[in-house]
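Structure first, sequence second, as always.
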């Protein structure tokens, strides 16, 4: 018999309610031992999916632990596809720990990280990509992140992967027929079909992979560093994007001595925003430390917002900073245009021909909306957002798709050259197996363990 597992399913700390979750064949028996319904008529007749009010009581001495609500849910119509019990305690960590300890003493064992969801996967309730989406739902910081994770948990990615795998399986059947019946006069037609099919499959995988960059940002956040020489408006921009006075703003150059980091949502995209110390030559020891931290943030950032003071000509310091931005994704903000414009876009384009240049007056909130729109366009490569939320957000999925693309491209190249079907079959099957690892249909136990190790207890 599979062990019955138990864990605290809510976050640690004070709260109105805390939940103890049990899963396994002995869940109801354990509930019967430690839970006494308020109405005696229910003592021996707790039924499926009915919520009961009563007390958690230590059967060894009759001590009341907590006043609770409890529900028993019968397999297979549960999250884990096993018998499940949930006990809704007061949100005291003491009450939760005592109730959990009582469940463990009466037949349950402490669940491992992610074990509830792992059982849902092993019992066929979820496939592996759906199970991984549960973590993303729990950690979602924006509506878009949540929507994408929810779409994946509901099977959007799984359905697309299964569709591609079915096409691959049809192709493998054709190849097997040709290998088993080599005397049939179908080789020329087979190679034409192989070439067309492998090309089509490659395009389908490529389409999924094309969403990975935006997907990673939606899941993990876009790292943005605001850089420039002192007193050009970096902290003012930080405050404008945050909609609050987070950074100190003065007319004195070098006010920001350290990096200031905040996580915000811009157009529903999670953004890790860093306001850096002004980059310049200085003898001030503390300011030099801040400038070094600015350079570290610059190196880590996905996107650079370079601010120039538009009310004065480009300086030697401006040009030196821009010379380091040629290979980076960068938006140039020409600030302080309300004081008169002495920097032209053409001057910026000479140094940074691929940069988007925005004229702004952060003080007057001019250019902020255009900047936010440009950040969104960069994340989605200028394309309209995919309302179906089918984005590849998981690094493991991206790596498997990339390997699958390589395998099918190799198969296509050999098909074009009419090479031996045995060799082509190896690459087609390899592609099929790699895609199977995404949804858990051809995956090792080690990989399964690694996936669920990222979960929290109780999920």
């Amino acid at each position: 018999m599979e062990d019955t597992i138990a864990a605290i399913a809510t976050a640690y700390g004070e709260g109105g309610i805390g939940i103890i979750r049990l899963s396994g064949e002995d869940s109801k028996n354990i509930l019967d031992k430690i839970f006494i319904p308020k109405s005696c008529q229910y003592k021996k007749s707790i039924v499926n999916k009915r919520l009961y009010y009563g007390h958690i009581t230590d059967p060894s001495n009759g001590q009341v632990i907590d006043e609770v609500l409890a529900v028993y849910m019968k397999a297979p119509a549960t999250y884990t596809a096993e018998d499940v019990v949930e006990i809704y305690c007061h949100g005291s960590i003491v009450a939760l720990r005592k109730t959990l300890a009582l469940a463990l003493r009466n037949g349950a064992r402490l669940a491992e990280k992610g074990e509830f969801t792992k059982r849902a996967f092993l019992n066929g309730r979820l496939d592996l990509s759906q199970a991984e989406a549960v973590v993303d739902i729990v950690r979602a910081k924006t509506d878009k992140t949540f929507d994408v994770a929810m779409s994946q948990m509901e099977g959007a990615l799984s359905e697309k992967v299964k569709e591609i795998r079915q096409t691959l399986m049809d192709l493998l059947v054709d190849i097997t027929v040709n290998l088993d019946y080599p005397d049939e006069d179908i080789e020329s037609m087979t190679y034409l079909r192989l070439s067309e099919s492998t090309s089509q499959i490659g395009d389908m995988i490529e389409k999924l992979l094309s969403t990975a960059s935006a997907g990673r940002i939606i899941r993990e956040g876009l790292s943005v560093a605001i850089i420039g020489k002192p007193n050009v408006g970096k902290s003012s921009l930080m405050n404008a994007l945050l909609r609050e006075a987070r950074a100190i703003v003065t007319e004195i150059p070098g006010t920001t001595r350290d990096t200031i980091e905040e996580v915000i949502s811009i157009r529903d995209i999670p953004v890790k925003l860093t306001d850096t110390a002004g980059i310049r030559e200085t003898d001030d020891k503390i300011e030099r430390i801040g400038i070094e931290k600015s350079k570290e943030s610059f190196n880590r950032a996905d996107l650079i917002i370079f601010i120039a003071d538009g009310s004065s000509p480009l300086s030697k310091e401006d040009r030196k900073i821009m010379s380091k931005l040629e290979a980076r994704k960068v938006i140039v903000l020409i600030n302080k245009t309300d004081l008169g414009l002495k920097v032209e876009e053409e001057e910026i384009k000479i140094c940074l021909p691929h940069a988007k240049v925005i004229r702004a007056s952060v003080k007057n909130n001019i250019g902020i909306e255009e900047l936010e729109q440009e950040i969104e366009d960069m994340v989605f490569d200028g394309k309209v957002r995919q309302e179906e939320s089918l984005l590849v957000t998981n690094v493991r999925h991206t790596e498997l798709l990339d390997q699958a693309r390589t395998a099918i491209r190799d198969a296509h190249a050999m098909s074009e050259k009419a090479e031996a079907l045995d060799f082509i079959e190896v690459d087609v099957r390899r592609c099929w197996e790699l895609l199977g690892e995404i949804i858990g249909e051809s995956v090792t136990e080690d990989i399964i363990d690694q996936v669920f190790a990222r979960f929290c207890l109780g999920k």
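Margin note: The mean pLDDT is 84.
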